[in-house]
From TrEMBL, chain A:
<feature type="transmembrane region" description="Helical">
    <location>
        <begin position="73"/>
        <end position="96"/>
    </location>
</feature>
<keyword id="KW-0472">Membrane</keyword>
<keyword id="KW-1133">Transmembrane helix</keyword>
<feature type="transmembrane region" description="Helical">
    <location>
        <begin position="128"/>
        <end position="149"/>
    </location>
</feature>
<feature type="transmembrane region" description="Helical">
    <location>
        <begin position="218"/>
        <end position="250"/>
    </location>
</feature>
<feature type="transmembrane region" description="Helical">
    <location>
        <begin position="288"/>
        <end position="309"/>
    </location>
</feature>
<comment type="similarity">
    <text>Belongs to the binding-protein-dependent transport system permease family. FecCD subfamily.</text>
</comment>
<feature type="transmembrane region" description="Helical">
    <location>
        <begin position="262"/>
        <end position="282"/>
    </location>
</feature>
<protein>
    <submittedName>
        <fullName>Iron chelate uptake ABC transporter family permease subunit</fullName>
    </submittedName>
</protein>
Automatic annotation (TrEMBL), chain B:
<dbReference type="GO" id="GO:0005524">
    <property type="term" value="F:ATP binding"/>
</dbReference>
<dbReference type="InterPro" id="IPR027417">
    <property type="entry name" value="P-loop_NTPase"/>
</dbReference>
<feature type="domain" description="ABC transporter">
    <location>
        <begin position="2"/>
        <end position="238"/>
    </location>
</feature>
<dbReference type="InterPro" id="IPR051535">
    <property type="entry name" value="Siderophore_ABC-ATPase"/>
</dbReference>
<dbReference type="InterPro" id="IPR003439">
    <property type="entry name" value="ABC_transporter-like_ATP-bd"/>
</dbReference>
<dbReference type="Pfam" id="PF00005">
    <property type="entry name" value="ABC_tran"/>
</dbReference>
<protein>
    <submittedName>
        <fullName>ATP-binding cassette domain-containing protein</fullName>
    </submittedName>
</protein>
<dbReference type="InterPro" id="IPR003593">
    <property type="entry name" value="AAA+_ATPase"/>
</dbReference>
<keyword id="KW-0410">Iron transport</keyword>
Amino acid sequence: MMRWRLALLVLLLLAAVALFLLWGLRAPYGFILSLRGTKLLSLALVGASVGAATVMFQTVAANRLLTPGIVGFDSLFILLQTTLVLTLGGTGYAGLAAVPKFLIEAFCLVAASMALFGWVLRRGADDMMRLILTGVILGVLMRGLAGFMQRILDPSEFAILQQASFATFGAVEPTKLAIAAPLFVGVLALSMRLAPALDVALLGRTGALGLGVDHDRLVLVTLGLISVLVAVATALAGPVTFLGLLAAALAGAVMRRHEHRYLIPASALIGALILVAGQFVYERLLGLQSTLSVAVEFAGGLLFLVLVLKRRPT
Amino acid sequence: MIHLEDLCIERDGRSVLRGLQARIPRTGLTALIGPNGAGKSTLLHAMAGLLPPAQGRVMVGDTDIAAARPQHRAHLAALLTQSPMIVPRLTVSDLVGFGRWPHHRGRPDPHDRDLVQAALTEFDLQELAGRSIDSLSGGQRQRAYVAMAYAQATPWMLLDEPLSALDPRYARDIMDRLWSLSRPGPDARGVVIVLHDLGMAARYADWVLSLRDGLLVSSGPRAEVMTSRDLSDLFDTSLAVEECRGHPVVVAV
């Protein structure tokens, strides 16, 4: 039953992939296909990473309304970009080689989040609330810093930065993908190994401990995997906050089960599907040039409001 | 047998349990009683090995429970906390199935499924097996959680206030089952239960530990610990233990 539902999601994704690649294809075929292929792969990778990461984050945070973005990933990304633009200048920033920039971004994001997780968790691993609050406050701080630095920028540099602050799936360096794809596959495989233990983590820290799961270690390892996934997605495309929420909520609604061995792949598939199908509709059917992420964030934000409002009081 | 050996527990630098020295018999139903804030829940968590003692230790059989590996602990004692997490989309049989986790660690075999079925039957949950936990009434949900602790098949079951918010009928139902599970036999469970309802404690407990302000006031067979004078002193209010149709009852006088 569950397998059928997963298979259906795979089919849907394949259909979206086929449409994305083949719709309105003209000569030169090879060139256009390879162009579309890299774009497709980056869309799918970002969607799948964010989807899988959000399901796992919601479990360790014991909250269905949170995304890993809450601990300040997007603010850190923007701060990083702002610092780069400020120090290198607009032209220097635009001239940065893509691969080293990607690696530096990914490294900074993983290092920062692991530092945050490690620091907060050492003082009592049961304290997810403290982690989240610390993340929110640090996020505001980083945003404030970035905002301050943006005041000093000249208008053209600011425009370059503005472009980088929204998720874009335009031209992606194939070399970036060659790093990101194996990383994603590896992390996803590890996540699937953790899946049964994550099921138990749904019972909360005491519940999981009572059943013999080393909860503190599980949370730390899971947060590590999550930060790699989110860092890869953010470094590839830019901040995507609500996409994960959308994917995780839909995965729950489609699978109607609690087991992570279904939820993680389902959420990854749905995340990829949203971005691939969304980009197809946006770019090919509507012929729009604007960024898809704005639409995804809008839909995700709406869903967030719906979830908050319809939540039964407990 | 569970031995408390000079057990001291601190939480946030505050001493919550001080120098507890007691034993709890391997079979039978043991009640932990005492006023609010006496440290009953803390003691129960310490017996499950979830709170490392500041001093002393808890010996479950011949294992120092706080020093044991989590996996080993889960084979010795099943703990039901006061307000367990309610997981959306989780069905009753899923929940009871979690009780088997320490045995299969994510890969249930037919034997585990049989034992889940047996636990569902034992606690009259067959008809609710497919219902989701968040759709159940308080009484049904509580029964499901007790069944999960039962399915864990540990020698000890540690239950924190399993009767809160239950109708008399369901409360009695659960106590009856726990009582019979704790009778001596090859599959006997040692049941340790935090009870606020003194009537239930008087009616079902074989052994009683009474606590107050983090200290053990007394421990022993029910009839010795639950006397009118001791209970009145313990709770700082006038209580009497009377007999009604052959059963002890506790009344405020």
